[in-house]
Each structure stands twice: as C-alpha cells, then as structure tokens.
From TrEMBL:
InterPro entries: HTH-GbsR_regulator (IPR052362), HTH_MarR-typ (IPR000835), MJ1563 (IPR026282), WH-like_DNA-bd_sf (IPR036388), WH_DNA-bd_sf (IPR036390). The keyword Transport does not apply. Keywords: DNA-binding, Transcription, Transcription regulation. The keyword Lyase does not apply. The lineage of its organism: Bacteria, Pseudomonadati, Pseudomonadota, Gammaproteobacteria, Alteromonadales. SUPFAM superfamilies: Winged helix' DNA-binding domain (SSF46785). PANTHER family: HTH-TYPE TRANSCRIPTIONAL REGULATOR MJ1563-RELATED. Residues 22-80 form the HTH marR-type domain. It comes from Corallincola platygyrae. This is HTH-type transcriptional regulator. It comes from the Bacteria. Belongs to the GbsR family.
Amino acid sequence: MKMTPMIESLVLHFGEMGSRWGFNRTVGQMLALIVLSEDALNADQIREALNVSRGNVSMGLKELQSWRLIQLRHLPGDRKEYYAAAGSIWDMANTVFEERRKREIDPTLSLLRNNIMDDTNEAPPERYARERVTEIHDLLETITQWSAELQRLSPEKLNTLMRLGAGVSKVLDISEKFKRGSADKG
C-alpha cells in the first residue's frame, strides 16, 4: 500500500504523538493509517505501508483492539482479517477517554480512597497530607463525574457545548451576579 504525501505526513505525526497518548510510535502510526483509510486494511497492507515487521503489526493490532479503537472485519471470499476504525472520530475519542479513565484515574481514585479511609495515624503531617489527598480525590471524582456526563451527550450537543467556549464562562458570571443581587435583596 502506497501512502499519499499528506497521509504519510499525518501517519508520521500520529506516531510521534503516540507516546503522549499512551502507546508507542508504531501503534500511533497504525491507528492513523487505519483511521485515514477509507477501506479496512489487513496486516500485510499495514506492514507494507509502515515498513515494520509482522510481529510489530500483530502486537500493535492487539494493543489497538485492547484500547477498543479498531474493529475486526472479514471480507466475503477472503480469509484475511481486516481492521477498520471503531466508529466515528467522536466514538473513538470517547473510547480513549474511557480507557484512560480506567487505566489512570480509577486506580488513583482507589489509592486515594484507601488513604483517606486509613486514619490510624493522625499526627500533624498525616492530618495535613490526608486533607490534601481528600482535595485531590474530590477533584478527580468531580472531573470523572463531569466527563461521564459529557460522554452521554450526543456528538452534536457536545460540539455545540465546546463551541460555546468562553460563552459558558460568561453565562456563569451572569448567574453569579444574579445570585448575589438576589441575596442582597433578601
């Protein structure tokens, strides 16, 4: 499979970004290639396009499947396995958020909860540390709940919300002024 210059540029960039997103360069390149390809690709096509070993492709496909970012497809009359993006860009973004929550946030919340509940040593340094841990826990819990609410929104509503940007802050400022004004009158 021969990539166009534009697709090659994007694939290379996704590879460089892969480590920042939680997987290696080759997996990032594979994801980009699959997402940017109109047709599902088999392992040989991926290997040829990226010039990597069969083993590297096999491991990368397994990793992308574990992230639930690609899906396996079979073509009639062909025994090879083909891979395509698992849904729309919005679907994949939601999946990445969900997987990162499971892999990063949930274990941290669990550790924080355990430390908050363990009050065996209440010496001043422990008391201060527990207060800080509680703050971190509450922040992560709020972010997790907020992101779960966002994930329930349709892509159209989420897109509208994101486009509001600073407008949301202005609405909150107006709401705060209104509440202060009501409190002053009461």
